[in-house]
Amino acid sequence: MPNVLAVIPARGGSKGVPGKNLAPIADAPLVVRAVRAARAARLVGQVVVSTDDPGIAAVVRAAGAGVVERPARISGDTATSEAAVLHAMDTVEQREGTALDVVLLVQCTSPFVTADDLDGVAGAVLGGADSAFTAAPFHGFVWRESESGGHGVNHDKAYRPRRQDRPQDWLETGAAYAMRAPGFRTERHRFFGRTTLVPADPARVLEIDDPHDLDRARALAPLLDGTAGRLPTRADIDAVVIDFDGTQTDDRVLIDSEGRELVAVHRGDGLGIAALRRAGLPLLILSTEQNPVVAARARKLRIPVLHGIDRKDLALKQWCEEHGINPQRVLYAGNDVNDLPCFGLVGWPVAVAGAHDVVTAAARAVTTAPGGYGAIREIASWILGKELSTS
Fold first, then answer.
1. Are 73 and 90 in contact (CB under 8 A)?
2. The whole model's pTM is what?
């Protein structure tokens, strides 16, 4: 069996989009999407992420990838992907005591790379090519400006042939590359020897270079991932974490003459939480408010609570680690901007109806019921289905 390694470079720093490689697209950060594609590829034997960032390292380990700690000398803005791949190759070969046959460079800034793309480039090299990359058919007229004015690059501007009469051009997608390992180590660049182009779906060609690209990717993800309109089921979820104010309540507070706060909750939410608890799902209330009302509600529901939390995402991450739960299999329900860091951590970020616009935009699913009016009961019905109605 050929020894095929996929390397995903993922530095912590990014000038165009800060924290880019951990930016969530649909149900996962960019780097996790790349890990999933690489792990699903039939021809890839091992997947590692080359990173200088402990946060990225923790996330990709949870997603099932190995980690190669990238030294500072190849972690700056001018560092090349080739340098990261070569260092990862050396590290893995020394660690495993075996020689690599093929190495893949997988760019996590291409959020829609697929396992088929990776099998395509790896298969091309295993089939005789020295290097291969994904390319999409391209039919545009390319222009370049100069002092004398614009001129055609891939065409004569005086002649406009029909698309079917023009030679087929290809656009490098930037998503996936494969190289014969010994040749790559000698040549030290990704295009050497006989290079094969592996066709990729043009609809999936997108590279994340600025915040607008992130917005486009998030809008396209439900369509390209095939998850448009899908709601989570029990097969998707290992734990449920719920915000309190505005999620289990309608975000209003009643204050009596002695300054004590009262809130209204929905009995249906209590029934839904009880059903989730009986189904064996770990549950947690997570709130920034240090409030006796939150603790009292948690006691009533017989589920744990963490409240008075400044960094909800750090608390959630620690809770998942303590309970051995993969954050990508956690449903987090929230309504306001302080829930967004948790949205970026979990696989199923859910907004209740009436949530802040940016929260709704970042959610993978949105309830029809507002907070305090049965939203949690609705989420429980997604997860448990008929099991809820019979519990």
1. no
2. 0.63
